Automatic annotation (TrEMBL):
It comes from Pseudochelatococcus contaminans. It comes from the Bacteria. It is found in: Cytoplasm. GO terms for cellular component: cytosol. SMART domains: CSP. This is CspA family cold shock protein. Residues 1-68 form the CSD domain.
Length: 69
């Protein structure tokens, strides 16, 4: 699992971005991943661990299997 900090999350738009602790580009996180983790929302600055998943259609990576630290 990778760890990072929620850069921002917009509950109304249903997505946000996580800044990886190891550096590199920000990781997209969708509301469905948040809900699957049993969470209602994410808070800016919240520490989180996650796995990366590549979308088969777009080739873009997103965070899944979220766990609050």
């Amino acid at each position: 699992m990778v760890t990072g900090t929620v850069k921002w999350y917009n509950e109304q738009k249903g997505y946000g971005f996580i800044q990886p602790d190891a550096g590199g580009k920000d990781v997209f996180v969708h509301v469905t991943a948040v809900q699957r983790a049993g969470l209602n929302s994410l808070a800016d600055g919240q520490k989180i661990s996650y796995e990366l998943e590549t979308d088969r259609r777009t080739g873009r990576e997103s965070a899944v299997n979220l766990q609050v630290q």
